[in-house]
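== Folding the chain ==

***
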Amino acid sequence: MKENQLFSLNALKFVMIIFVVFIHMNPRIESYGEFSMWINQFVQVAVPVFFILSGFFFFRNGWNKNTDWQETYKSKIGKRIYSLLIPYLIWNVLPIINYSCGNIYSIIFKGKKADELIYYLQELWSSGLWHIWWDKYPGELPYNFPLWYVRDLVILCIVSPLIFFIIKKCGWLFPLFLSFVYVFQIWGGVPGFQITGILFFVIGSTCALKDFSLTNIPFKNAVLISSLFYLLSMSLTMPLLDKLFILFASIAWIGLFSKLQGRMIKYLAFFSESVFFIYAIHASIIMVSIGKLLKLYFPSKEIVYVSTPLATTFVCIMLYYVLKKLSPDLTRFLCGGR
């Protein structure tokens, strides 16, 4: 892949992480108005795009050229342990440490009773600590709930040899079949095996294994089709239309950015190194605190809805670069070597 295409896809990652922050606003009409529902639908494409890119880069090198696929698999898994699994384990524990430290501070300096903290820790232990990393919130998501993407991605990497052999045998029929399952909601999946992750990871994997260049995506057609389904999905209450919009829009975004170049792309790509940090930390107290603060100063719920994710992203970027300045090794470790 050419360097300018890597810049473009890194720029796309940064745009998509902003979309992810918007998704976690979880808007309702009574809270932020109908405008927020249009935006919320538009940004739902973010996680599928990340899955497509993950599948594409996982299978891009080695699998077709190296006849010893076991060595390729071992190498890929070894890298993902450092880049995905270890950060996943850490970032699901950090919110618990943060909550516990806050309570300990209140107990020592503000005279707060320890009952709440004791009950919280007892509940974590009695329900099974493993749920923290699997389905603690709310029964299907890990404790740091946005990290369900990493959980599912780790599982997909583990079963990648199976995906490899099915694609080699069936080709594009495999993602087409999964698209049918996804669109018609025949099977939604279970924690760790969500159909969203499986489908879009397989789409990216198939592109890589079939040597399909992302620049060859007919993004103009994908944009037109996804725009049609977007308008229909906002006019009619049909989950099928939502799925069709997400499917075609994810392809459209990747096709569009794979062709874009210029100074703006380089600027966006520059900040892509902070994407994992933003992803892991934004849903903590940062987003909630910024939202409450903005509500005090802006009476317009539409302004609060738009400005909260943007301000949250900005604060997360600043925290990333401050941490990177103070301890680059720690920052790199927390972000999986990124």
In short: The longest strand covers residues 189-190. DSSP finds 17 helices and two strands in the chain. The chain has a mean pLDDT of 91.
